[in-house]
């Protein structure tokens, strides 16, 4: 970042200032390696300075565990050093659920003006640019699931009692859900649907697809809006992979579609209109195959906690097996075709084995890198699966090339460290730091029961 860029950012902030005169401050947010949103704030009067020169923050947050203890890696840890948080002013929005505040995601720079190698938002932007250089773009969206408690302590007491997917749950909390939709609309989030989910007190919200960085920004913004509206209603929201040890957990499914520009007809969705299975194009299949091939390693960023593996179990719609299928909710990769007549727009790939403990920027960056590797190798998908893989015998699964995904965080981290594609795409700093944080959490919960793990993680994400 040179002087001209600092002057440009300062001028941009100065132009925004009159629109923000009624606000108290701006939240500058980023998501750490453990998937927790961390913040600093500045008064509106300081936004111009923050835009040009950043706000100081220790790099040790890269190695925070979910309980706020700190580990060390080769590239991060300890009390020494400083970074500068620079807000993305183009993404700055008023927080309708927190009157008096605006929010902007940040890019973290070194004091010398270079992007911090562990800035996951910048890494995601870089992966999107690498695809763009090949003539491709990705549209992405995260599904947001959460469980609501009306207990003001550490326990979880479902805030609604109605059946899964039932109208009763909408009736019980209609005022809360109305206020949530209103806050998201005023914040500029395009909600596509909202419904009660399976677990006690659980809901799910889907948003419109965006460019990858925008999709990750929106995932953070939606969750913090849910958290704030819940608090206003005397409720507490949990996004943890496992809220109750004996119930299903919260997923963080990722939807991806691959697009290319046709000079004559505009953007074309590679997930539809082709001659491969279910209308996939050759490129769409290759991208999907690249993701499927690397799912064991991808879980280190997409299912990144010890609690994630209490959720990732067969026959719970969590995607515990490395397979794919058309509208198969037990496959780790579900191909969504969409309604006949709308498939050129709607067809996409759903990654079902990820959860909301994931840093959305890092998760998407890794998925894009895996898909890009599939494109480069012209990879092919195996035969699609039309049943729950858990209902097959071991012999049948071996014949079909279907393996269970890692059953522990340690297995996933080991695969992550060994994966050359992810290593080349993300860089040694990220590989080492992610592994250090994951192994720190493994040690933290080494002697814990599922109930203790659930209780310790319930309110951290």
UniProtKB/TrEMBL annotation:
Domain (GS beta-grasp) ranges: 21-113
PROSITE patterns: GS_BETA_GRASP, GS_CATALYTIC
Record-level GO BP terms: glutamine biosynthetic process
Domain of life the protein comes from: Bacteria
Record key words, sorted: ATP-binding, Ligase, Nucleotide-binding
Xref: Pfam families: Gln-synt_C (PF00120)
GO MF annotation list: ATP binding; glutamine synthetase activity
Cited Gene3D superfamilies: Glutamine synthetase, N-terminal domain (3.10.20.70), Glutamine synthetase/guanido kinase, catalytic domain (3.30.590.10)
Stored InterPro entries: Gln_synt_N, Gln_synt_N_sf, Gln_synth/guanido_kin_cat_dom, Gln_synth_cat_dom
Domain GS catalytic: 120-461
Keyword Ligase: yes
Recorded family membership: Belongs to the glutamine synthetase family.
Record's protein name: Glutamine synthetase
Organism expressing this protein natively: Actinomadura logoneensis
